[in-house]
């Protein structure tokens, strides 16, 4: 095993909370929510920053226009510019990670590690997925942080690629006092239900179990029983209407700080999530959403 692999193996021992840091305004929010989770479940926090490959040259290639004798010199200059740009991006990313590490340490996280990776965010996360317990990401990255609505272009790719819980945040941190589970009885929703019942993160937090649609009494009773057996106060509700609208309205009316739901299922939740549901839900509620597959 070479030194590079040894370093990576040592870095990713244990199941960690992973926070995606990109220098956008949401990076502090991501860091704070990830710190809360890491502290509550007593896990290390890993801060990740990715540097995507830029296939566009730093300057246009004019070698054909200035003569053959100058091409070698120009190509060397182009290489130097690209290397300099890459070096600056690495340094900038490390500064972001160091700032986030200090913030997490101040929040009480005892073990914080940083990691830089070249490539897309989805590629980087898939590489470390086996060592991940929960991932935290902002709804919009650096390129889209000025937008008031919508989700970042990488978020859907990440949701499709990952098989671990993903917390999408879009607001300054406030420790949740109540949770909501959007429940349809699918495998992923049952996984979310078990997570609430068993995780220290949700210990003592009342949970609203909400189903949108008809004939859900048995489904809701089953979920409520699981939570109550775990010592969690549960409220079950059946709603009718457009899923994202009624969930957002119920969340706002009951001042619920965190919503959990399955990211994929075999009914309309699947299509809604991979379409516009996540964006609509987050835009309407301005509250974090924890997705499970």
CATH topology of the largest domain: the name is: Rossmann fold
Count the E strands: 10
Largest sheet: 10 strands, mixed
Major sheet: arrangement of strands: 3-2-1-4-5-10-9-6-7-8
CATH architecture of the largest domain: 3-Layer(aba) Sandwich
Q: So what's the CATH class of the largest domain?
A: Alpha Beta
Q: Provide the β-strand percentage band.
A: 15-25%
How far is the N terminus from the C terminus?
Answer: 34 Å
Task: State the secondary-structure class.
Answer: alpha/beta
- Mean pLDDT over the residues: 80
Helix content: 40-55%
Can you say what the CATH homologous superfamily of the largest domain is?
HUPs
Separate helix tally:
10
Key descriptive features of the protein:
10 helices; alpha/beta; 2 domains; Rossmann fold; ten-stranded mixed β-sheet; disordered N terminus; 293 residues
What does this structure look like?
- This protein folds into two domains: 10-59 and 68-174, 3-Layer(aba) Sandwich (Rossmann fold), CATH 3.40.50.620; 176-287, Rossmann fold (3-Layer(aba) Sandwich).
- It has ten helices and ten strands.
- It has helices spanning 3-11, 27-41, 63-66, 71-106, 121-127, 155-161, 187-198, 217-229, 243-253, 268-285, and strands at 16-20, 45-51, 112-118, 132-138, 166-169, 179-182, 207-212, 234-239, 258-262, 289-292.
- Helix 7 links the parallel strand 6 and strand 7 (207-212).
- Helix 2 (27-41) crosses helix 4, helix 7 (187-198) packs parallel to helix 8 (217-229) and helix 9 (243-253) packs across helix 10 (268-285).
- The longest helix has 36 residues, at 71-106.
- The model is unreliable at 1-14, 57-63 and 264-275 (pLDDT under 50).
């Amino acid at each position: 095993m070479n030194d590079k692999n040894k370093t990576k193996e040592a870095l990713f021992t244990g199941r960690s909370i992973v926070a995606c840091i990109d220098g956008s305004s949401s990076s502090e929010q991501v860091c704070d929510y990830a710190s809360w989770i890491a502290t509550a479940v007593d896990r290390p926090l890993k801060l990740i920053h990715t540097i995507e490959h830029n296939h566009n040259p730093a300057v246009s290639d004019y070698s054909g226009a200035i003569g053959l004798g100058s091409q070698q010199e120009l190509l060397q200059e182009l290489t130097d510019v690209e290397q300099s740009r890459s070096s600056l991006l690495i340094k900038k990313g490390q500064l972001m990670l160091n700032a986030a590490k200090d913030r997490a340490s101040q929040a009480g996280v005892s073990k914080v590690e940083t990691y830089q990776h070249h490539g897309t965010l989805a590629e980087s996360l898939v590489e470390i997925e086996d060592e991940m317990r929960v991932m935290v990401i902002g709804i919009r990255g650096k390129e889209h942080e000025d937008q008031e609505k919508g989700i970042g272009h990488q978020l859907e790719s990440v949701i499709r690629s990952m098989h671990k819980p993903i917390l999408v945040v879009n607001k300054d941190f406030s420790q949740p006092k109540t949770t909501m589970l959007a429940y349809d009885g699918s495998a992923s929703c049952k996984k979310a239900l078990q997570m609430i019942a068993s995780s220290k993160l949700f210990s003592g937090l009342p949970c609203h179990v909400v189903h949108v649609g008809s004939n859900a009494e048995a489904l809701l009773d089953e979920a409520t029983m699981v939570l109550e057996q775990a010592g969690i106060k549960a409220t079950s509700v059946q709603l009718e209407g457009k899923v994202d609208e009624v969930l957002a309205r119920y969340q706002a009316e009951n001042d619920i700080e965190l919503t959990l739901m399955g990211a994929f299922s075999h009914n309309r939740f699947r299509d809604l999530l991979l379409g516009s549901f996540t964006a609509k839900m987050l835009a309407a509620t301005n509250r974090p959403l924890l997705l499970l597959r």
